[in-house]
């Protein structure tokens, strides 16, 4: 079976993990700090804007507290979002307000967001679909005009850029995932970015029990190191030296990963671009860069499910992301989302990972073209 996603791991990661074993300190330590420093550099920012955590979903959940979202506040989420985004809003007692998306990019646009803004709206939780940037030049002024916080789910945008700067650095807060199905993988882990270093400080405590450390404490209890104080009922969500050691090696390999992923993207464009029964992804906007996390085609003949099954029979696994939250009854959100419905019923994500062989690429393209001859 040709996988739709797959990690690329090697000796470098194993050696790095071994050195953590040898050090006898598996917990959060110097290696995590090094990874944070390297990732800040990767984003083109400084370490007082970033903080690691144990997964990207934790970043979504924590964004509500960190952005001051209160019960009853409304948070706008594109209906094509990761399930964790919907849960993050609801579990905090805020009201989940869904918006429609662009039918081709599957990203929410400023006009989609503006339609559902009310006096109770406090934040927008954006998703950059497949690492392709949303139109931040239109969304940020809209958020400013209404005084809304902007949270960017950059889970799959590890190398994405918008207008020349790292994607995720426009909004108040952003998060990247390093789980097993992403591009940079370390088992589980994530990085958070904060526009305001003070929010980072708040997050640092929130992600470790709300513990007050160091500041002003040395004098009073330095002799009794078992005493503590807290400033919030925080979580416990930190990276450790094992996952950080892996993440550092993966970070070094990112340029290679991107080269490979872009080549796959271009090969699909070349191999499928002339077929009139499907749409290939739109070209990127000037100054934007994708991480090539997904390659999504959209069938114009209503035969998406048939194609998915046809390919699976040929040993080619495909999928669709993200199932719309408005079709999940438990969220209880009403409304019509015609573009998201179109995307959900006609979009297919093709295999895209660093280990895809050119023979496999050719096979996938050939099978899709064959399917077109039968059903196109
Ligand atoms: C994978 C993913 C997440 C969750 O990441 P974890 O690190 O697994 O919690 C969130 N949002 C999007 C868009 C994702 O693809």
Automatic annotation (TrEMBL):
<dbReference type="InterPro" id="IPR015421">
    <property type="entry name" value="PyrdxlP-dep_Trfase_major"/>
</dbReference>
<comment type="similarity">
    <text>Belongs to the DegT/DnrJ/EryC1 family.</text>
</comment>
<dbReference type="Pfam" id="PF01041">
    <property type="entry name" value="DegT_DnrJ_EryC1"/>
</dbReference>
<feature type="modified residue" description="N6-(pyridoxal phosphate)lysine">
    <location>
        <position position="182"/>
    </location>
</feature>
<protein>
    <submittedName>
        <fullName>Aminotransferase</fullName>
    </submittedName>
</protein>
<dbReference type="GO" id="GO:0008483">
    <property type="term" value="F:transaminase activity"/>
</dbReference>
<feature type="active site" description="Proton acceptor">
    <location>
        <position position="182"/>
    </location>
</feature>
<keyword id="KW-0663">Pyridoxal phosphate</keyword>
<dbReference type="InterPro" id="IPR015422">
    <property type="entry name" value="PyrdxlP-dep_Trfase_small"/>
</dbReference>
<dbReference type="InterPro" id="IPR000653">
    <property type="entry name" value="DegT/StrS_aminotransferase"/>
</dbReference>
<dbReference type="GO" id="GO:0000271">
    <property type="term" value="P:polysaccharide biosynthetic process"/>
</dbReference>
<keyword id="KW-0032">Aminotransferase</keyword>
<dbReference type="InterPro" id="IPR015424">
    <property type="entry name" value="PyrdxlP-dep_Trfase"/>
</dbReference>
<keyword id="KW-0808">Transferase</keyword>
<dbReference type="GO" id="GO:0030170">
    <property type="term" value="F:pyridoxal phosphate binding"/>
</dbReference>
């Amino acid at each position: 079976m040709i996988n739709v996603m797959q990690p690329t791991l090697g000796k470098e990661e194993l050696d790095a993990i071994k050195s953590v074993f040898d050090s006898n300190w598996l917990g959060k330590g110097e290696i995590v700090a090094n990874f944070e420093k390297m990732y800040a550099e990767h984003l083109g920012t400084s370490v007082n804007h970033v903080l690691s955590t144990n997964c990207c979903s934790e970043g979504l959940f924590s964004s509500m507290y960190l952005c001051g979202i209160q019960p009853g506040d409304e948070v706008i989420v594109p209906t094509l979002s990761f399930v964790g985004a919907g849960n993050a809003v609801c579990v905090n007692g805020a009201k989940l307000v869904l918006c429609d998306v662009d039918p081709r990019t599957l990203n929410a646009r400023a006009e989609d967001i503006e339609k559902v803004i009310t006096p109770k709206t406090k934040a927008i939780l954006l998703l950059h679909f497949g690492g392709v940037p949303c139109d931040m030049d239109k969304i940020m002024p809209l958020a400013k005009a209404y005084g809304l916080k902007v949270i960017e789910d950059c889970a799959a945008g590890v190398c994405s850029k918008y207008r020349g700067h790292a994607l995720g650095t426009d909004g108040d807060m952003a998060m990247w995932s390093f789980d097993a199905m992403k591009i940079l993988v370390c088992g589980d882990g994530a990085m958070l970015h904060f526009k305001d270093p003070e929010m980072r400080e708040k997050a640092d405590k929130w992600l470790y029990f709300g513990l007050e450390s160091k500041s002003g404490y040395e004098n009073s209890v330095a002799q009794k190191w078992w005493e503590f104080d807290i400033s919030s009922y925080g979580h416990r969500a930190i990276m450790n030296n094992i996952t950080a050691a892996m993440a550092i090696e993966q970070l070094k390999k990112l340029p290679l990963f991107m080269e490979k992923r872009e080549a796959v993207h271009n090969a699909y464009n070349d191999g499928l671009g002339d077929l009139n029964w499907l749409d290939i992804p739109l070209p990127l906007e000037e100054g934007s860069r994708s991480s090539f996390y997904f390659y999504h085609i959209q069938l114009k003949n209503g035969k998406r499910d048939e194609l998915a099954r046809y390919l699976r029979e040929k040993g080619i696994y495909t999928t669709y992301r993200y199932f719309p939250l408005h079709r999940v009854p438990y969220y209880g959100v009403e409304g019509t989302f015609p573009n998201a419905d179109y995307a959900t019923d006609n979009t297919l994500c093709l295999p895209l990972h660093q280990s895809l062989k050119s023979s496999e690429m050719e096979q996938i393209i050939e099978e899709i073209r064959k399917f077109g001859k039968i059903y196109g």
